[in-house]
Amino acid sequence: MTLDIQISHRVGDFSLSVAFSVPPGVTALFGHSGAGKSTVVNSVAGLIRPASARIVVEGRVLEDTAQRIRLPPHERRIGYVFQEGRLFPHMSVRQNLNYGARFAPADPGPSLDQISDLLGIAPLLDRRPGDLSGGEKQRVAIGRALLSRPALLLMDEPLAALDAARKAEVLPFLARIRDETRTPILYVSHALDEVAQLANTLVLMEAGTVRAVGPVEEVLSDPVLVPHLGVRGAGAVLTATIIGHHEDGLTEVACSGGRLFVPLRPESPGHILRLRIEAQDVIVALDRPTGLSALNILKGRILTLHEGAGPGVIVQIDLGGERLLARVTRRSATALALRNGLSVHAVIKTVAVAPTDIGSGGAVAASTGSTVV
Q: Where are the beta strands (DSSP E) in 209-280?
């Protein structure tokens, strides 16, 4: 599925002007509050009428202002999952799911039982929404949307209303949807950990405009974009393969820069993981350090240094095909005489790679040809 979007719209003092094309997979719209993310997805869904728009899903024109084409929402074959589940409280889970199936095309598709198994909600089918946790409600809402067999699934910050435990519960199911149903997803979020785990393509939005579009690992590792992503949350994404598990509660993985230890994972050796490593958790050393508690030391070469407005410098390190970011002070950069092309070692604490920064799966990013999650 290719998605082509051009939208211009104005509401009060807010002006939106975006244009981007993205390949198949999961596309994340990322940006801080007020960036215009929800306006974009609501325009795609047909819930608002932009002043000017051209929206095309896999060659099918949903809206083209110039040609006076505008399909009503129910003809767009769009599934929508909101922040709140918005389930019918008087219906059982099974009835809520069947309501979504009413809008599916006539040709065969996944059954209610298949979707229930995929999302782990089979034991809940006879319950009412009032008897479900927040995470369970969101999984039912996702199942209802999937049973309508959408050409595109819109998810507008579906985990924003959940606490950390419920969010961790739902994320693996979203990864299963991505990998097993291959349903194209336009995913709105302001949480970088969700984006890093789920997305193939990232559209970075700011103040109603598109700041960058590209494979998620490239956008997140671009030092120029760090101020727009958020300095404290800035970091890179590495693809790694599980080598084995150790009795002391660690999993060993291999990436382009060497081997890393991360908190114990349930997957088997050979499984592909995606690791998000925040720039503030990376220490730069000129020589391979010894006598450290940190287990993870990767050798690389400095590609660029980017100075921000404050006392910090973002160092982009090439690990032999993948890129890592480190955030150091200007004083440290000067003391170490950091420069482009310099060989360095990146030191990463094992405990710095939190479970929420590790995604699993095997989706293929058509934009790069690489295996991602």
A: 209-215, 235-246, 250-255, 258-263, 272-278
